[in-house]
Amino acid sequence: MLEIVLLLRHCFTENKKLFIHLKTKFQVSIALLFATLFVGYGQTATIKGVILDETNTPILNVNIKAGNKGTVTNANGFYLLEIPANTDVSVEFTHLSHKKVVAKFNLKNGEDYEFNPVMSTSVEQIAAVMVTNKRQKEVAGIVSLKPETIRKIPGANAGVENLLLTLPGVSNNNELSTQYAVRGGNYDENLVYVNDIEVYRPFLVRSGQQEGLSFVNTDLVQNVDFSAGGFQAKYGDKLSSVLDITYKTPYQFEVNADISLLGGSVSVESISKDSKFSGIVGVRYRDNSLLVKAKETETNYKPAFGDAQGYFTYMFSSKFHLSFLGNASLNKYNYQPQTRQTNFGTLADPIALLVFYEGREKDRYQTYFGAFKGTYFVNNDLTLKAIASRYHTTEEEYFDILAQYRLGEVNTNIGDENLGDVEFSRGVGSQLNHGRNDLDALITNIEHKGDFKMGENRFEWALKYTNEDIRDRLIEWEVIDSAGFSIRPPKTTPVNEQPYIPYSGPLEAFQNVRAANYTTINRLQAYAQWSKRATIGTSDVWYNAGVRVHNWSVSDKNTASKSNQTVFSPRAQFAIKPYWEKDMLFRIAAGLYYQPPFYRELRDANGVVQPNVKAQQSFHLVLGNEYSFKMWERPFKLTSEAYYKNLNDVNPYTLENVRIRYAANNNAKAYAYGLDMRLNGEFVPGTESWFSFGYLKTEENINNQGYIARPTDQRLKFAALFQDYVPNVPNMKMYLNLVYNTGLPGGSPSYANPYDYQNRLPDYKRADLGLQFVLVDANKQFNNGWKKPFKELSFGFEIFNMFDVQNAITNTWVRDVYTKRQYAIPNYLTPRVFNVRTTMKF
Predict the structure, then answer these.
(1) pLDDT tens, residue by residue, 72-100
(2) What is the CATH number of the domain that holds 34?
(3) What is the rounded CA–CA span in Å between residue 599 and residue 679?
(4) The whole model's pTM is what?
(5) Which domain holds residue 191?
(6) DSSP, residue by residue, 211-268
(7) What's the average model confidence in pLDDT over 136-145?
(8) Do 47 and 158 have their domain in common?
């Protein structure tokens, strides 16, 4: 037998194809056994956690055993154990003074799972922990995303938001932006939490290329949960979605680095010798020049986007933990356009827009955020939290840009040295944009949270006070000249008929916004909710019911009016898992959701704050189903959700790039309905991939004029996230990110009446490909040589917009005196771009 094993091992070393053939065809039983053992080697997952007794005191020297592997807890009750992946594994926790705990796990390759059992002195505990934990999220309609997948998937703006865009119901037709719309909502309707702390975005950003970095640092992320609607009362008052992120609590010293042509990031995590203090710090820098300079507009573009974040925890005792989350961010945006040529029209009648620019834009967004969170474990059933946070942002937007354009016919004579040049001008003109915008916002939060368990019942509550102090100066004007005529605003009296009929009145800017606001908003929020797990016959059922209350008052020094309003938001969920042969879960969620206006929703089209704006109201009804099954002997899941939203007191808005301008008037009503589906599983063994489909229809009725499409009416969405590896070169990984969205409304002039213009932009199509060659990972370590210091090391090559599709985000409208027409010239997004990337871990 030994000789056969040695011979097979030699054959595998000399010829991998022979080994694969033997394993696949199952020709020799000993080869099958050997292959199974060999493939199983390295397919591992990790469980870790802190083991406490009934008084929440850490237990020293608990023996943890899984098969022939084992470990013990340290003085703080901490343990770490690797177990085989993709198989049922029973883990035993034993101690002389406590009863045994047995937990059953089935984790995927590379999965990092936290399990914190409480050991009893009187009752032996046996639990199938993995099923229980996952099911709690499934019944709440929450999608969990793996941090490893988030860090690896390619994208022009790689990160959490990039991965969200592959989910059904989530869309964004701008790869330079990290903002996203969910099921017909806009960018301001999404909640983002990091370790129970609500985080905010800058206010004044107008385009995706100004955004820089998302708040979320993926190097620090441990867990990502996302809900696209029908979420519980414990989450805040927004109309669309919740992104709930948990940062790491380190258990060892580790350094991670990620470097590419778009910038880089470094994170360091560590824990003290006594395990009381732990911390993780991340620093990031991003430069979008590679993407922006590839666009059709030639520019001098010098951005500098950087931030530093840290999350620290100190355990004063087993009962009281104090954490701090801090962030400092500085985004500088210097933009000096030079020339642009956009060709459009038809083959028979090609037209080009040629623009020469003068001037520049200089923006600066500086934000600081800090939050303390104290957690007190009163006993095994009661946990109390206190959170205090402050967010401060100072933002500047200064620009003076003169654009002089020619609209004309293109030379199409093949072989002519002037091929592609504009030879005959149909229209000439100029446009001057001026801006001096300053904003200073200080947001302070104080919050208490509680969590109490009583048998199968769980009660959660919170009370939160928020103060928002905002000082804002807005000065923007635009002057348009066409064929020698200074174009007046289109909605003035007398009717503007330029450039066809000259107007002899005084000059007036085409658009002119001037405002200064000194606004204070005080908010008092609270919620209480109850949840329970029970059975009906042989079926498992889950209940959740809760209510939120939100009171806010708005005052502005420049207006005499003040407002004080209160809303109540009841919400409920129900889920049932029948005892069927097929693994099915059904759920229903309904609730009345309010969105009390944030500062931007109070500011009208002229920049003036309107304190009396009401909270937008939305009734949610969500019906969901999850079907888990096996295909090719691997796990898969099909998730389906049908939803309906009925909205009242809607605050209409216009959307241009990523800038939202509200009417600051609750003069509309709306609705949205659709179907979201996602199939995910191991299409390739050891990797998770998924395919998404979404259908959405959302319309609004402004001032009873009739229903028209809302600015986020994205009818169809297809997306795929696919991971693979080269069979004969298993260290070569492949990641593919595909998105197709039908066109959004928004192809009309910014000043136009939406009832007169219902033009749509072209469909959005994008494919990003990443190739990664792994030199070092958990299964391939080195004891000597230059690779010895690395825990992980890989080099990659990325192709953004692989098929070089011309996606448009807006249209520029140009008048043609020659034909008396207006032309919509698309503003294209990024073309095909190549990037190189390396990641490492020490």
Answers:
(1) 888 778 888 888 877 788 898 888 778 88
(2) 2.60.40.1120
(3) 39
(4) 0.81
(5) 144-278+286-841
(6) T---S--GGGEEEEEEE-SS--TTS-S-SSEEEEEEE---SS-EEEEEEETTEEEEEE
(7) 80
(8) no
